[in-house]
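step: validate -> pass
step: tokenize input -> pass
step: predict -> running
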Amino acid sequence: MRFLIALCFLIFTLPVTAHPAGGLSAADRELAATPPDTIQAERLLGISGDVKIRRNEAAVPGWDVFLHGQLAGFIGSTWEIAKSVGYSGRPLEVLVGIDRSGKISGAILVRHNEPVLTLGISDKDIETYVSGFAGHDLKKTYEENQDDLPAVISRATVSTGVIRDGILRTARTLATGRGIIEAGGGIDRISFKPLDWSGLMKSGALTEVSVSMDEASGIFASAKVPVHPGKGDFLHFWAGLVDPPTVGQNLLGQQEFTRAIGNLGPGETSLIVISSGLYSHRGTEWKRSGKFERVAIDQGATRHVPTVEGYQMVKHLRIEGAPDTKEISIFRLPSTIDPLQPFKVTVTASRDGDEGPVVQEISANYALPRDFRLSPPAPDEPLWKSVWAKSHVRIAVVASALALLGMVFFLQEWITHRPRLWRSLRTVFLLFTLFVLGWGLNGQLSVVQVVAFLHS
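step: predict -> pass
step: emit ->
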């Protein structure tokens, strides 16, 4: 019997924890995100005027906000994106606004079932805490931003910690989904290392492919004007992104590199194609059509044919040890070509034949080397990890107290036969509970736990 009493006591002294999302009721799981109204959108993005809100059902859902017809920023719901659940085990929803520069512009708590946020904590305290995330730069690491984050409310550490995690995770996910920040870390556009041609090729900065005159002679054997076999290249070309300074600045020199990169729009990149040999990768048709139809960049189902508007001619390579070249072109790639994913550069060679054109595609596969990529930002540390990491002393003290209390239950008959020991032990433990667990460790032995348990 004493064992059962002790076991029940230990069970009921364990802290009540919030249910994970998987433990939500069916009704909670079906709850839709709270759509922002115009007033909330103005508060979240710090704007006013002709504000329009448009729902965006992308892979990362949310709302796009327009001011006078121009995109002003984005709004996301922590419940819809991060499935944030409070201490009570019920949905906790914050609307988070981010601007186009990748900073959190505001946050509003719109739904919660947290007893601790209604018992003894004012709406002003909550509003001050939530609005304290404004200005958080999502392009910086968590460590760089940590000192600027608002401190949790002391009487609601778990609930406000959940709010913090929900806001940061939602904002980062939304910014990644809208292309404001890159999940993979992006291209390193700052680091520079002087290299010659040999060193650049060893780094994987350029891909290359060649077709000899002998090979071309066989390919175009049925052409009206055949290719005569012989020494040398029919086409030898190199291709790669010049956005990393180690690549572009070494190849082009500072002035030409600045010109190539300075005109890029958001998400755009620059591809260099260098060629030598009999065949021209540019041809002459582009002067009439406005398109370089001999060149194509393929990535998955996306094919891009460069245009005159995105073309820059380069006369000479500035890098030491460069091979003899015939043509050097820089083509601007649109944001639909992801520079962090492999793609293929193809030059199409053709000659007229008796039964139509004889066509040969000469392709080179390219992937941006790891040395020219930025490391992805470390994900924000989960709340439970940070809480446990900072609570080693508290855990040891509480565990020791529970172990001592459990031992007292097992030895209660022996202790009660010694009144002086019993009174001393009881007094010491009560004082320990008051001063150490209560005032020292801020233990919350209150009705809040009971209410939260009933609500969950």
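step: describe -> The first helix runs from residue 2 to 13.
step: cleanup -> pass
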